[in-house]
Design brief:
By secondary structure, the chain is of the alpha+beta class. It has one domain. It is 55% helix and 13% strand. It has three helices and four strands, in the order αββαββα. Helix 1 packs antiparallel against helix 3. It is elongated and about 80 Å long. 9% of the residues are buried.
């Protein structure tokens, strides 16, 4: 290779590295979101009926590349989630204790995801 071809070769290598890292991170985010949803489903309260809070959680992806965001939320019971997660004071004055399930799911899955992303960056996506 001649010296004049070196900048183009470096540019191609950097582009390939960037694409592989981006793809690897996107896959890791999807995998972690799925793990979080499974953790939520296993620990969220169940009413015993067919339309349980635990089964109402879904994920939705917005953006792409470095602007990609995955949001996990309850599709049908969004007005109830914060009350169960954080607790509340009932109209009668009785305090209903918190039963956290979203925060623990996030906190259990995130460290592993961050380590995996570090590895993806070091390895170049593989």
């Amino acid at each position: 290779m001649e010296i004049s071809e070196l900048p183009k070769a470096i540019e191609k290598a950097v582009e390939a590295y960037s694409k592989e890292v981006e793809t690897g991170i996107e896959q890791e985010l999807e995998k972690t979101a799925d793990k979080i949803i499974e953790a939520i489903k296993s620990s969220a309260p169940r009413s015993g009926g067919p339309d349980a809070l635990a089964d109402s959680f879904i994920k939705e992806t917005f953006g792409s590349g470095s602007n990609r965001i995955i949001v996990i939320f309850s599709k049908t019971k969004s007005g109830l989630v914060h009350l169960v997660e954080l607790g509340f004071k009932h109209r009668s004055g009785k305090f209903v204790a918190a039963r956290p399930f979203m925060r623990p799911a996030y906190e259990n899955c995130t460290p592993e995801m961050l380590e995996a992303i570090k590895g993806i960056i070091v390895r170049g996506g593989g």
